[in-house]
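This part of the workshop introduces the protein records we will be handling. A record pairs a protein's sequence with a compact description of its fold. Comparing a sequence with its tokens is the quickest way to learn the format. To make this concrete, we reproduce a full record directly below:
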Amino acid sequence: MQTLSTELKNTLNSATPKYTAQVLLYRNYWNGSAFGYLDPIDITDQVQQGGIGSIQTKFDTESFEKWTNSNVNITLRNERNQWLEGNPDGYYPTSAYRVFNTKVVIKVGAELEDGTDALVYAFTGYLSDDNVTYPDARSIQFAVLDHMTIFDQRNAEEVGTVVTNECVGSGSGMAFTTANKAVGIITSVKKGLTASGASAATELDSGTDYSVSNLNEHDLVTTITLETALNSDQSVWVTYTYWYLDKKLEWIVEKLCDLCGVTNRSISPAVFYHSIKSTFSESGSAFAGTRSYLQIGYSETRWYDLSTHTETTGLYLIPTEQHTYSLYPQYLLYDTFGCAGTYISPVIDAGADVTSWGQFNANYNTGVRGTAAFAWRESSDASAWSDWTNIAVGATVPATKRYLQLRFTSTPTGDINGWPQNFPNLVSWSVAYYYSTTTIPVVNMTGMSVQDAIEALAQMCCYEIGFTAQDVFVFRPRSSSSSATETFDASKIESIDSINSGDTRVYNRVSVTFGDYKRTVDSNTQGEASPNSIDLRGLREYSISNGNFLPPDSADLAYAIAPTVYEYVKEQRRRLRVTTKMALAQELGDVVEVKLSPDDFIKLWKWGDGSVRYGSKMPNVVYYNEAYLLARLPLYGVDFRVEGIEYDDSEKKTTFDLTEVIS
């Protein structure tokens, strides 16, 4: 919500406010090394009467929200051809001045009692190359573009790091590798005489002269394989782009803004409303070659490296590779007196933003001659650990700290010589954990504009993006203020232009696919009472997927996104379009209370009122009060979220698109 002075509020609420506006021009200027903006020029007197078209801003999606500003047309005086580039008497006197991307700021407000103007931001945009001259009217019309368009003008691939003409091999061979991992784009491969260097080398054709493998791989370098091997006097050079690794979503957004020169910004950390699910797991192959602590006999304690020890004096290690039971672990040692074996998992790091630990599962056998037990312990620093606590398979681990370890203890009994299936053994185990933030392992920007990339990142965490009227870029949670910032009653609302039931924007199934994970949430999976939304409306599905920005292989991002989006789209929310006197305080995302008086919406009979509406049947006298109105009037005391604003400078009115807030 924009802050208005008390004096401006009083003026706007007066019977006949005198509205004012101001247009500022920030010319785009080449300083010798880069374009930048000069100090503003007030060009309000250049605007023709009624020359500022309507200014519209609104949200436009369900899974995330982008502040979409329609282009604003502005008509300016042009008696001296003062808007022509190169006109020494105009606004762009030399070739260093550029009309394209010149910044325009429009402010609106009112004249106060003391004669001064109080103004607030209404729109910030940028001039396009598209303009129309009207010679007879001595005017020119420009399209002023929404600032979001600047993101569409830059290639997100520029965020990657470019390596030019890296020599990957000389003298012989056909297969060569890059020095860097996570290579995403091969720009050129050149082959030529080593002595002449890359500048004289011949560029090869992809698919014909060479092939490429291991692109966009977090842990692998990229391999370029030539069709013809190098001669002893030849080398091969590669120009490529490699991506950043393991970056948080907000870091990527910051980097994209830097690329586009957007420094005025407010970027919130990407936090997921519903926790992301991840799973730690180990199986038999992971156990092989580990070091395990084993207490042998009744007093002797030793460490054994199970990747090398298969037999020791007086001891018998079951060499599982000699049996068909290949998944049985290699950490169970046996002797003629009996033994107790323990395996402890690696330290499991759920990250600093862990919210909870989940279900523990294990695939194991106790055999006929032993018992098995499981336990867990936790730590906040992976150094000081809690005591071990036993846990049953299928139970939820009640840990609260960042680090966890699991323990498997086998206790054979009786005659311990025999086949491995007769004794306790662990085949695999796993534990789930949940956290609220994630990183992108490979920041793969292939084929994306900056706008594509920012929208994809906003969709991942259900955020809203856009530029405020003050030209501040926001990347923030899609949430409303907890209470209404203003009341829209009959004194403010001049007309209700439309009321939409909102039924067509209700979805009862949300399907999300990210990487290898897919989650579907609907009326049935959520256990909604019958008849539920699917019963009443039929299946209405909303699908979300993301190809470039994939979370780590272990991160089930779909688990977090699906319920978040479903909770919003499952509700039927009424939509209103109302027109008010010029309202300047509201911004997208603000909440207002719609509170219409009885006679504004429904004709109610009151004692002593002889003007009963024609055709009305009112057998009983009804008195109305606040409680009655809340029960009977559909638009009395209802909170709505501002999701669209349109300023009409010529009519001096504001039109709002409002969406009902469901608690």
Notes: Confidence is low (pLDDT under 50) at residues 285-340, 416-421, 613-623. The CA atoms of residues 226 and 520 lie 45 Å apart.
